[in-house]
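Minutes, methods subgroup
Present: GH (chair), OT, SY

1. OT presented the first of two proteins processed in the latest run. Sequence and structure tokens recorded below as shown on screen.
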Amino acid sequence: PEVEMAVFLLFALLVTAHALSHNWVVEDMMFVDFNSPNLLSDAQAKFAANNYAIISLEKCTGHSDGYFTEDAIAKTAKQLKSFNSSVKVLMYWGVESQSTVSCYRAGKDLTDNHSDYFLRDDHGNRVPTRSPEDFALDFTRQEVRDWWINVPLALKASGAPIDGILADGTGARPLEFKNLSLARRQALVQGSYNLTAELVHRWPDGLVLGNGIAMYPQFPDHFMPSTHYVNGVMTEHFAAFESRDRKTGQLNTTRVKLEMDLIAQVAADSTKTVVVDTWPGPMVSPLGWATDFTTPTTNEAIAQAMLKYFPVSLAAYLTLAEANIYFQYIWWYPIRFGAIPCPDNPSACAAPTDWYNTTRRVGAPLGKATLSDDGTVYTRQFEHATSVWNMMDELKSSVEFH
């Protein structure tokens, strides 16, 4: 039944709406995913709405102000759209484990009324995911998938002006679960694929952005099968983390070029919106640079690093940019780590007060990027800019506007 459902859903996805498309101005190419424990001020909301094309509001948004995540997202989405009606607002909604619903009203419903929705291993025990306190849900069951799907659909139906979800953890991680047969683990992977595809089918004009492509060596398929079951695909660690040497910070250029090829494959589908997450400097772990570098830790130092490396990330992104590919550039997901500046108190957050040149028009590309003879420098011409991405000497990268 799971396979038959998958075939039907794949056919249904062929007729989904076309991807989002930007206008080749930097700020219109930018995506951001952040968590704000407090509701946004109007100044913060106005900045975000006018500097990002797509905004994903994370788990536990508004939690410190006493809100369930769903209610805070509904309130914040209305606030953002009051400043820019065209900005797209997504609800973060994780696939991988119940930890992602801990701040949601749905989390209370899960705990109080649906404890049987948790996955049980071959010995009858709940199955932990990345930590002993987080347990997987059994997405091989239709009623569990329906419960998950109905949370964002109910929020949309209540009047919240959300445009879709960021579905975190859409890859094949259930294959790593312990004490389950291979057949059960494979069925769980397919169940999670069907989960997102069913949501796309039931929300025809919604964006279901799956955090999909990954370059971890233990997953040789790079989670690419998951990209067929969503209408949006994120690659969270572009030219970072598992694609860098943990000591020297040097890029694994073979791995990065493969990732670029995978991104291009997905973006070639006119129904797919793609998000490329870029990171400042030699990032090899959350909040951490390679050991040969001193990782900035103060807000001021992080803000300086973000300004310093922005041209590198922008050039890397422009090397593969298409009209349906967007990019993110933050230090990490809490709002203070680069999403929105704090002009009234610059030391209170790690975002640069002097924002990047995001109002500059890049213009449409005049062709694909060209690669130097030694295979390390990409150059690409646009109507109003030239980008140079030097993969081995990254601070020599540049984006020149003209």
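2. SY then presented the second protein from the same run.
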Amino acid sequence: VNKDVSKLASLLEITLGKQYKLVAEKQRGQMRLVILARQAVVHDISDLTIKCENTGVGHVLANKGGIVMSLTYQQTTRVSFLSAHLAAHEGDHHYAARCDNLDEILNGAKTHERYDVALSSHHFFIMGDLNFRTRFPESTEENSSVQQALALVEQEYFATLYDNHDELIQGMAHGDLLVDFQTLPCHFHPTFKVQREAGFVYKEQRTPSYTDRILYRSANKDYLKPLAYEPCPGFCTSDHKPIRGAYAITPNKAANAMVPKEEQTPGSYKIKFHSMSCSDLPALDVTGTSDPYILLTWDYIDVLPTGPKQEGVIMKWTSPGSRQWPKTQFLSRTLNPEFKGEELEISINSPVPAEGLLYVTVMDYDLHSQDDLMCTLPMTFCDLVAHLKTDESSTQVELQDRPLLRNGKYYGKVSLTLDIEKSNQPIAIDTKSGDKGCLSW
């Protein structure tokens, strides 16, 4: 471990006291990521995984890139963190480079065998010098972007500066990056580019910007609450002011314990997927098309595929003897497939655990090589069965044009209909046969 990051970890331990213990530390270039936990909960942490991805010159230099750490808490809640340093400078080209950097990091630093960390985690935080700038399209030599930003800062019109000119929040709204992520607003002084002294004194070579950020994505937004988000004006060792945030997570084990007793009656749900179609899929083949099919996978829950056995293509990346995930037939040379007459069916027992994740994944079939993961609609089983009211035994849910995601970006849309039926009888699931989703495929 680099002496620099070890010193940082040591200082954090001294500041926090003996009640905290170092869980993990990593340095990559000027990026650092340190995780500490209270001594009382360290034994609840498992499955720690660390991955790194360089996006600097030649994708080799570590001056830019990211460090990803994932861990499991109480065996039911996967929490992940990304410390990133993205491409610098102002302008369209550099903005596009930052978006590409995030795509590369999420694609290359997977802590799950197939899905990127944004999809495979129950809660995921991104932090660091993301380098996104404030932009003023109407800037001129007489009224430059620096002058316009400084004028807003002087009047403390931070909401105007952030809401109307921050390229990160505008890019997220347009779907350029970090789709389905959230962040508290930066209604405070920009954190860059400042003199190395206490307070906010800006260098006029750069437009004052919110380069230093914390964002988050949660599979269940009710279980993650932001508490604080603010800069640290007293730090004077850099031309950036660091950002600090505080967040409260409800672990899935605690969420399961809060389910009312009347909803804990043993039973089961049968979920049928039909009327499935996709649109605007990416072209992965040299012909400018793809050969897509839909695949259902799950994680952190016991699931029984209950529909008719699937015939046709065997998933080449599925190891011998392991489960065959429910899937449709593939359709040749199309970016807008309609899977007419196809049905997929699964069953789960109730009460449904909060940790249960479902992935509606679009794959591209390849005859002579491994099939490619194109994009995914992530869901939780709790959200699905919540469509069924207490006094209902069945319901039908239509999901129209839901975004398909990969590496935090849009990669098309999916529409499907779900028939959900509830029974008072639990089903028998042989967990030894591999029906419970896990990190391996």
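Chair's summary of item 2: The two ends are 32 Å apart (CA to CA).
Next meeting: continue with the remaining queue.
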